[in-house]
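# nightly structure sweep
# worker-07 picked up a monomer target from the shared queue
# config: single-sequence mode, recycle default, output format = structure tokens
# input follows
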Amino acid sequence: MRTFFIAVIGTAFLVCAPLARAQDAAPNHPALTDKFYFSAGAFVPKTSTSAQLDSTSLGAGASIDFERALGMTTQKVVPDVGFRWRFGDRWRLEAEYFQLNRSGDKVISQDITWNGQTFTAGTEVLSKFNFSDVRTSVGYSFFKTKDKEIGVSFGFHVATYDVGLQAGSSGDQAKKVLAPLPVLSAYGQFALTDEWAVGGRLDRFTMSYDKYDGNVTSIGLDVSYQPFRHVGFGLAYRSLFIVLKATGPDFSAAFTQTFQGPLLYMNASF
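# output follows
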């Protein structure tokens, strides 16, 4: 019996030792191990935007393509910042923010009705479309090793709109809308070496609650290079697709937006 137990212990040691050595030899990238992570960079999204603002008392209009009808730029460089806090071995809190403010100045070629006011063809219309997105989430990594991580999270894309049209001496027909849009996410990070890592994230949700109705899809892909212990660099792709209807006591608004493009950033972790 004693010989049997010695044989079992020896066999377990022979099996576990290579696995332990393999784990020790796995890449040790700071993005997968550091408690705090910060990033700041330049996001260059290509944007497509259509919106409709109806007045409850003055009647409905039609959806407006802000790039084609009102002359807004389709691409612009904007700042993007991110944060991650690992508050447990498998738990993480994340946040990311970007803001895109645009304006247009164009003589319109067709009638446009916005918030109950009609701008006739041949009128010079000044427009603004200011948008910001704060993405927050709490995630749990159900699979995690020193160099690999896969998990799920729940959070919000808090979208803020400030949209308006103005012509001549008419008042600014503007409306501000704040929409907290819940999302479910799946994410993964993988260290290729001690300096190189890749990651990805997919957010998706369809909702109808309170005064909001719509869906959100967001994709993030990252390749990061960290040659220094606490400082690194990354190239990423970000996309955000929003279809939203919001109602208020005196208005109803509808937005359809896409943002997609590269993100170049610098990060710090510790």
